[in-house]
Amino acid sequence: MNTVPRMPHHDRCPELGTGPIPVEPYISQEYYEKEIEKIYKRDWLCVGRVEEIAKAGDYKVKRLDFANTSAIIMRGKDGDIRSFHNVCRHRGNKVVTETGGEETFGNSRAAVVTCRFHGWVYDAKGQLINVPQEDRFAACFDKSTISLVPIHTDIWEGFIWINLAETPRQTLREFLGGLVEHYAGYPFHTMTDVHTYYAHINCNWKTGMDAFCEGYHVPTIHAGSLPGLTNMWSDNLMIFGDHRSLSAFSSEANPPTPVGNAANDIFSASIVAKAQDRFALPPGINPTRSNHFGFEETIVFPNLLIQCGGGLWFTHQFWPTSQNSCMWEGKYYLQAPETNSELWAQRYAVTLQRNAWYEDTATMEDTQRALSSGFLKEMHFMDEEILLRHAFRVIDDRVNSN
Amino acid sequence: MTATLPKDFSVLQPFVQKWALPTEYERGVERRRSTPTELKAFYDAILPLVPQILKRADKYSIGKIEGVDRDLFYMAMSLVEIAPHIEFYNGSPGVPFAFQEDRMIGVHYKQPD
Q1: Range of the domain at B67
Q2: Which end of chain A has fewer CB atoms within 10 angstroms, the N or the C?
Q3: Measured on CA atoms in the order A19, A25, A28, A31, is the torsion positive or negative?
Q4: Residue B5 belongs to a domain
Q5: Chain B within 8 Å of A335 (Cβ-Cβ)?
Q6: Cα(A329)–Cα(A199) distance, rounded to whole angstroms?
Q7: CB A199 to CB B76 under 8 A?
Q8: A271-288, pLDDT tens digit by residue?
């Protein structure tokens, strides 16, 4: 039995309609290309956390395959974080050689990056500061006028955002709108130990997002890892422009098991265990302070899913690579363990959640393959799938706009 | 060369070589190639000793456990890896109805704990 919210989600936003949703956006190359041009190359995209590059000279390089580029995100000696395309202004080589993963991390004590092709050196403001054999360049060459191609960068709640547009239509604050107040005071910065999992999945980025954006699948998909969650519901739906958020509730925790209990007693780190609240949530999240509150689920357009509980939080991002493929990153954030037994307890919670993510990702390629046949023209969403419907509406409006 | 465990932990001696693994990656590989019987035997043997193992591990800073205490801790971490398979998945060495496990990569997979 599931407890339905007081007001059906769809009644809160009748403008979204209730009819079937077309399959075409999930399989069309033309639609994909429009998404890249009109969304991914124009909107603010989350690419990391300030803690990842905490010290002056720290940098990370984030692959952005949909734009055939990578972003160098670097903290300067002045403490500021700036981003640049990882392209040398000489002959286009990658300045920072990437390690082969989706993210490359490094540090330079001098807060510079050096291209290993010919040794050109750039400072953390992107300025070209050293060119070997500079005197052999023609008189028209003036390195003081040459910098790495910059990318607009801003920070919100410790998240690092970039915008690939030459001139973003909105500031980051304008883009985030009501989310700023909704999350004000949530202590992301106290839970910065992260376990990151990623996979290249042969599904459309929206197929992947959809699978994480509803609780309808929990009793079936997670019958293995989360068998206790037989009574989940969602409420407090809020639409913040292009973004959306709701709260997930559960009247039950996972069943007690010897290792699960031992871990939870040492450090409650699991989203399916109770008694995880270590701080007061912002007033807008679980406003009634229900004991059944599990986590807040927020989608920051286009591709960032944040799930926040009372002592842990996750993010999921799906990065498009084609109409039929994407790269998924799941990140599990916890307060740093202080003892080895806390580390042990936390790893139990992370392992169980990782297994739930194996279960979540299991349907994605099958779904995409079936959708790609073209024989199914439309999908039917129920009330719990309101976030999928809102996603479709925002994306479709953007794709059809100028 | 496999360490010799203290007498209180002698029941775990047969499991040291297989399960005293430093990284999450290795524990996952080992789990997937074990039989349900092997998983259960290890789970049953180590479960009652977990409190003592963690007490020993807590004498050290994180990442700095030494000697046999480190082997014991790594075995307890292997318990973390296999516990859901005993406690939820009816002994199955793989997660049932899962994405291909070796296609999901943990960035920390090869870092010793």
Answers
A1: 14-95
A2: C
A3: positive
A4: no
A5: no
A6: 7
A7: no
A8: 777 655 678 889 989 888
Could B77 and A344 be called an inter-chain contact, meaning their C-beta atoms sit closer than 8 Å? yes
Q: Which of A42, A357, A295, A113 is nearest to B98 (CA)?
A: A357
Q: Do B54 and A361 make contact, defined as CB atoms within 8 angstroms?
A: no
- Domain end residue (candidates: A168, A193, A227): A168
CB half-sphere exposure, A235, CA atoms < 13 A: 20
Whether residue B79 and residue A259 make contact (CB cut-off 8 A), yes or no, is yes
Residue of A nearest to B69 (CA): A340
Number of domains in chain B: 1
Strand order through the sheet with A243-250: A232-240, A243-250, A293-300, A304-308, A313-322, A325-334, A193-201, B105-106
pLDDT tens string A236-250: 999 999 999 999 999
Q: Smallest Cβ distance to B97: which of A262, A347, A359?
A: A359
Give the CA distances from residue A27 to residues A16, A203, B88, in Å, rounded to whole numbers and listed in that order: 22, 9, 36
Contact B88 A257 (CB under 8 A): yes
A58 forms bridges with which residues in the sheet? Answer: A107
Size of interface A-B (CB pairs under 8 A): 108
Please check whether residue A141 touches B, CB under 8 A: no
Choosing from A168, A194, A218, the residue where a domain stops is: A168
Closest Cα in chain A, distance from residue B10 (Å): 21
Q: Could you tell me the CATH number of the domain that includes residue A341?
A: 3.90.380.10
Q: Which amino acid is at A51?
A: E
Let me know: does A41 contact A320? Beta carbons within 8 Å: no
B13 pLDDT band, cuts 50/70/90, is: very high
ipTM over 0.90: yes
> Residue A236 belongs to what domain range?
9-38+185-399
pLDDT digits (tens, 9 = 90+) for A106-163: 999 999 999 999 999 999 999 999 999 999 999 999 999 999 999 999 999 999 999 9
Question: In the predicted model, is pLDDT for residue A1 greater than 50?
Answer: no
What sign results for the dihedral spanned by CA atoms A173, A174, A177, A181?
positive
